[in-house]
Amino acid sequence: MIYDISVITMLALFLFSFVVLIRWILKKFFKINIPNLSRIRIVVVSLLSGLLIVGLGYQFRTSAQKRMDEQSESKAAIESSKKARAKSESKAAIESSKKARAKSESKAAIESSKKARAKSESKAAIESSKKARAKSESKAAIESSKKARAKSESKAAIESSKKARAKSESKAAIESSKKARAKSESKAAIESSKKARAKSESKAAIESSKKARAKSESKAAIESSKKARAKSESKAAIESSKKARAKSESKAAIESSKKAKTKKPKQQYKNIEKIFNMHSIKYLSNRRILAKGAGVVLRNFKVIDFGADKMKQYHVLIAPKNASHTYFLLVFGDDLYKGRITYDSRITVFGSLNGKSRINDSQINSGIAQRYARKRVILVLIDKIQVKN
Question: What's the pLDDT tens digit per position in 26-40?
């Protein structure tokens, strides 16, 4: 169809140009003018003549031409359909690609938004976890500081209570030792006073008997003085000699009583190893230790450890030879001993036992080894100390 239209158009243009040329030739050379033949009419006549010629040619064409025309038309139709299909497919492909691109872009946008949301949520979660961790750490730090403060306060309270207990125990031990010493001294004084009273009574009896005898003799002397003055003088001399002898005897008795008093403190201390079992003494009650531990001597005990505090008080841990795990604690100053103490020293202590205790922080701070902390010890009140190096 398109081929036919193009052929008709070409024939119409050819006829138009042919008619115009003939008109120009007639007018130019033959001086013949056709006034009714305008351009529009020429065009219409050309088109109609072209249509007529094509129609006649189309009607008188052969079967082979018809086939060729049909084939060309079918080819043109196929090509046009192909082009239309290609256009539609290309449009569909473009639309599908646009849709796919839009989907992929939407998916990418969704994924990016999800990732951004996940990142923001993870950041928020990390920040919240950091804040929670910081809060928990701060709480834990506060609780640990509170616990440490409570522990330090409890330790300080325990130490203060221990010090107060040690002071009270030492005071009670000192008082009990003083009482025990006072009792022993009062007993010794009572015994010495009884002996002195007995001696004085015996002396008074002797003197009274002597006086009675002297009176009787003086009476006899007076009666016999008339008989013999010489006898009375001899009797007076005898009485004076007796008085002098009585005075000398009383002086000797006083001196001997003084000597006995000075010697008694040395004799009143008993060997502790004969009174107590050195292996089981640390398990006895304070009452039994205080009752039996007055006026004892600890002979040749070995030095386990020692130290000194800021008050220049020596803290010495000693033990007997046959019981090295039974400890006795000595606390004394320069007024009792000013010499040197070593681990090879042997110490003899005269005094009284002051009950049981344990090695506390004051002894550890003075220099006694940490391994003896909380060990049981027997406290000793010292009257006299002797050290052999």
Answer: 877 887 776 655 666
